[in-house]
Please model this.
Amino acid sequence: MANNLLESTASKSEEHEFYTPIPKGYKPGKTKYVIIFGTVMSGLGKGIFSASLAKLLQMKGLNVAPVKFDGYLNYDAGTLNPYRHGEVFVLEDGTETDMDLGNYERFLNITLSKDNYLTGGKIFSNVLSMERRGEYLGRDVQIIPHVTGEIKKFLRNLAMLRNADVIFVEVGGTVGDLENAYFIEAMRELAYEEGRENVCFIALTYILEPKFLGEQKSKAAQLGINKLISFGIQPSIIACRSHSPITNKIREKISIYSNVKPNHVVGIHDCNSVYEIPLLLKANNTDNEVLSLLGLKVKDGEKKEFSRWNEFVQNLLGAKSEVTIAMTGKYTEIRDSYASILNSLEHAGSALKTKVNIKWIETTEIENGKKKLEDELKGVSGIIVPGGFGKRGVEGKIKCVEYARKNKIPYLGICLGFQIAVIEFARNVCGMKSANSTEFEPKTPEPVIDILPEQLKVDLLGGTMRLGGRIVEIKKGTKARQLYGNEKIKERFRHRYEANPDYLKRLEEKGMVFSGKAPGVPIMQILELKDHPFFMGCQYHCEFTSRPLNPQPLFLNFIKSAKEFSP
Ligand code: GLN
Model:
């Protein structure tokens, strides 16, 4: 039945009100859709939930593909301030996305692309270009059906592109946000067209547990779910985030108010690690409930991968030793800004059965003398200077790197951290006292870090950095070569500045080794120091490619060295 409906909705003519651009070759019913909405409040971990459930289905041998919808009008996440929105996660193809895409890549161990991420800005940009091309045949262009039609087209394209068995759609924000309303409407239409048996709606909600009452309350959750139902969307599963495990009373209340069977009301209480969520969902049998709702029958092939995942979590949580790593940065108050680095440290920590504690260092306080460097770095076994933009805190970071170099504390410099290491070395080892980056000091007489030549032509801010996966050639006989075990690797970049080729010789003469570079052009991509247990910098973001069961080599060996260092 759904198929006929799809055929009749596919026409663009003015004759009727249906308008659904179906991509050529799309087979209705072949791909199932799991669609996740947030209610009550944002920040509940919809992405983690979606990734965890998708992981369980992937473990059963299904081909899953995630998508995130973001309501804002930015074209991508590249122009968003990480302080407000969390880190910008860069995909292999250079798309700058929301941090949830990082969760999907890590949980599912797959490489995503621009086809897995959709913002309101991109949708409207597409619709307006189509309008200018006259593709709407004289129709007035409307949110329904044209904008919603584009959203459905995006999903169906992805279904075909990835040959997906199940697409997981995370609708960003919260039900009730005006900017998400058309995404929600598009999902209602999708279920109408694809057939209810092919779509599973899930509402993620929050169960309050105010301290002054000492008991769980479901009213806010009920109101949130009712709001979703008022859009014509009846959830099949309700996932309840809560501080402690939800009580039976709560489960029953939610069930009765929302027409969802009690065994489809799933509790997800606070856990020590997000990587526990798949285990929790498995214990609740949520994966099998979703399969039966979608009428999917699969072979039971999950055991081996599930036990590897379980082992990863047990090693992470039951670590016998610990190290403390200092992270310097501008956004230290908001941990989401460094989500992928924190995850990479967990991956390395689990592999080495070591708990990694983080000590956050606000380097402006070192600059203005409010805090002393030695006090701040006491007890620390490793220092990371992560990526960043702008001048704030830079001088404090340079001091941290100097301290790490002189005291032989393991150092990992990522992107900006690579550049800071070059500046520090130029100033304190090569005697170039005024060495700086033209990003911070445009008129510096010793621009050891300078704008990439290709960036001189760029005049727009969005999507114009040197972005995405690129080849790094690694020099023989270096530490980088030993750690990667390969002469060519691919890592992801996001920068405008580089180590200035005019100064490389002077830096190298004094012992800085540029062990990784771009093929064919003098863009330095990895640096290291010889007489140091671990001093490495990478111009790329090594944190984007680390996976739970396959820790990124720089992080792994950085933590190994940190374990051997006694502060
Ligand atoms: N601001 C530096 C540049 O643009 C570093 C960028 C980063 O750390 N991502 O090159």
Notes: The first strand starts at residue 32 and ends at 38. Residues 319-564 form a domain with the Rossmann fold fold (CATH 3.40.50.880). Residues 143-161 form the longest helix (19 residues). Residues 387-389, 415-416, 439, 494-497 surround glutamine (CB under 6 Å).
